[in-house]
Write a structure and sequence with these properties.
heterodimer; A: alpha+beta; Rossmann fold; OB fold (Dihydrolipoamide Acetyltransferase, E2P); 2 domains; five-stranded antiparallel beta sheet; 20 strands; B: mainly alpha; 11 helices; cell membrane (chain B)
Chain lengths: 373, 273
């Protein structure tokens, strides 16, 4: 593990750059943001992740100044920003539609914000050229936005929002309009630029892969509330609820009742099936209903009964071949379907399992998580 | 391609004949040597010359242009403001009433608009002249402008203005530097529409003009009542010419810019990396 690992949220001394304190936003009867409290630290790449309508865009628009909270306060570097209009905030935003000014050249688009600050001409020129270099758009400076491609427009929008060197950059679904290949390249470019400039980025996205790739921390949102804030690996490995587990990646969720609690927890879940043994991270009571969540890649598939703490037998119902890996849908006698993933490290013709085969599934007692809700 | 058919040819001929035959006759007779409008006596341009010496017509033309420029400018400012409020402000108390009232003059009979304006001007004791015609034309032209501008504003991406605010513009700067340049084509065509409406309005101008100010349509109308003179044909031909040049050049410009844009977009796709 690196010594200077970037984790200001674990440092009690660190001062957050943004603090949401019990923020509620209502549009008429509709509650978009519900009593939300969260801290975001300097130089973070913070992702707001959730389905559409979960309030993530409203949060971002409140940071930019286009909406004001109904209740609660938002602090930027310790100061309440509610009375500050958007044009006076050290916050810039990259819009989902890019919102490039169609009547101005790319050069003038990037210079637009700098000129509003009445900077000397030469400073504007230097800064614009720096931004063009950063986003590799030097060749296109004299073109109008409709004269460049979608990916280039996205880079111009980024350059324009970074030009004023904001304390905080907001990115609203910045890569939504790009195709998959270009999106992946751009994600790494974004991370690179974020590191180079040291700006705090807050990104809104509904694409969990994108959030996992770029973010230092992810806030998973639902119905105006943040369900969990954590690093990508913690969100993936130790989700705090079935909602988060289900939202991020693929997961098997088995519902049951705790029969014995302690260092290890046993869960009865179906008649005639062995109890599932797991390692609880929170307190459970005997008899309480428990959800056991396990990722498909942590379930092994074999012809013989495995040595692992948990082993169940079933029949292969379906195989999804994805090239590098295959996902096996295995039906257990009770009707429960469990997904197991295996790397295809042998050629397809030599694959050991096929449809209707009886197989054993196994996982260790630490592979899954036990969730109360 | 469709084949030629007698039915199509006939409809086309009839259609164009209805539209343009009267104008063609007017243009032809403007070059008539004879003073009698309906008797052809050879080619001549003398009526154009006489027109230039007719001070009454020139005065009326000058009044008309003044009125048209002033009223279309005022109408454009007011109409654009009304369109902005209607499209941008979302729902506010009385919005439906407000939008209904803006569009009402479009369907209001001109006689009624003219008469009510006349009563108003008499009521407040405003001397009738150029000012009253300008006010009257502004009133009815601004609803046309607001229709044209609001149809453009509907498709205007609101985030452009938000981006301007975000980059440090005051709301007024955002309008001046971003919104206005983008909606400029609609504002200009609104102005042109208001200008044309003012140019050929007879009814409202007749109600609101005083003895000191006569517009060209009023002048033409009153002199026709004394008998059509070839001078009027010459004047009308000039007006047709000016309007035709304006319409043709406007459509050429917009066509060329559309072609340019297409070319640019194709170039952009090729340069994609």
């Amino acid at each position: 593990m690196a010594i200077d690992e970037f984790a200001p949220w674990e440092d009690p001394e660190a001062k957050p750059i943004i603090q949401f304190k019990n923020v509620t936003k209502r549009f008429g009867d509709f509650v978009a943001i519900d009593d939300l409290t969260v801290d975001i630290y300097e130089k973070e790449f913070f992702a707001l992740l959730g389905p559409s309508g979960c309030g993530k865009t409203t949060m971002m628009r409140m940071l930019a100044g286009f909406e004001t909270p109904t209740e609660g306060t938002i602090l930027l570097s310790g100061k309440d920003i509610a009375p500050v209009p958007p044009n006076k905030r050290a916050v810039n935003m990259m819009f989902q539609s890019y919102a490039l000014f169609p009547h101005l050249s790319i050069w003038d688009n990037i210079a637009f914000g700098l000129r509003r600050d009445n900077l000397p001409k030469n400073d504007v020129k230097d800064r614009v050229e720096e931004m063009l270099r950063l986003t590799r758009m030097e060749k296109f400076a004299r073109r109008k936005p409709h004269q460049v491609s979608g990916g280039q427009r996205q880079r111009v929008a980024l350059a324009r929002s970074l030009a004023k060197a904001p304390k905080l950059l907001l990115l609203d679904e910045p890569l939504g309009a790009l195709d998959k290949k270009l999106r992946q390249d751009t994600q790494f470019e974004l991370m690179d630029i974020q590191e180079k400039t040291g700006t705090t980025f807050v990104i809104v996205t509904h694409d969990q892969e994108e959030a996992m790739t770029v973010a230092s921390r992810i806030a998973v949102m639902d119905n105006g509330k943040i369900i969990q804030v954590s690093t990508p690996d913690a969100i993936y490995e130790t989700p705090n609820s079935t909602y988060v587990a289900d939202f991020i990646g693929e997961v098997n969720i088995i519902e049951g009742k705790a029969t014995s609690v302690g260092e290890k927890l046993s869960m009865a879940w179906a008649e005639g099936q062995p109890e599932i043994v797991g390692t609880p991270t929170t307190e459970f009571e005997k008899g309480q209903s428990v959800h056991f969540a396990i990722r498909p890649e942590k379930v092994s598939i074999s012809a013989e009964k495995p040595e692992t703490a948990n082993a169940v037998q079933g029949k292969i119902l379906d195989i999804a071949y994805l090239g590098n890996i295959s996902t096996y849908h295995v039906e257990l006698p009770g009707g429960q379907i469990i997904k197991a993933q295996a790397a295809n490290n042998r050629r397809l013709s030599r694959r050991s399992f096929t449809w209707e085969d009886n197989v054993w599934l196994g996982w260790t007692d630490t592979a899954g998580v036990l969730l109360g809700r | 391609m469709r084949r030629f058919s007698w039915f199509n040819a006939t409809s086309l001929t009839l259609g164009f004949a209805f539209l343009y035959l009267p104008m063609v006759i007017l243009v032809i007779y403007s070059f008539n040597k004879s003073k009698l409008v309906t008797v052809w006596a050879g080619f001549s341009t003398k009526w154009y010359g006489e027109l230039l010496n007719n001070d009454a017509f020139l005065d009326a033309a000058w009044v008309t242009i003044k009125v048209a420029v002033l009223s279309s400018t005022f109408a454009t400012v007011l109409g654009t403001m009304a369109a902005l409020v209607l499209i941008r402000s979302g729902r506010f108390f009385g919005r439906t009433l407000f939008s209904g009232m803006i569009y009402a003059p479009l369907v209001m009979p001109e006689v009624i608009t003219g008469l009510s304006l006349l009563l108003l001007f008499i009521g407040i004791g405003l001397d009738r002249g150029v000012i009253t015609i300008v006010l009257a034309h502004t009133t009815f032209a601004m609803c046309y402008v607001s229709v044209v501008v609001s149809s453009r504003l509907v498709s205007f991406d609101q985030s452009l203005e938000e981006a301007a605010l975000d980059l440090g513009c005051s709301p007024f700067q955002a309008f001046r530097l971003v919104t206005l340049p983008i909606i400029a084509p609609a504002v200009i065509s609104g102005w042109l529409l208001a200008f044309t409406l003012s140019l050929d309005d007879l009814v409202i101008a007749s109600f609101t003009a005083g003895p000191s100010a006569t517009t060209l349509p009023m002048k033409i109308w009153s002199s026709v009542r004394l008998g059509v003179s070839p001078e009027i044909n010459a004047l009308s031909t000039l007006m047709i010419g000016i309007v035709a040049i304006g319409v043709i050049s406007a459509s050429l410009i917009s066509k060329r810019s559309a072609i340019q844009q297409q070319r640019d977009e194709r170039a952009a796709e090729r340069s994609d990396d």
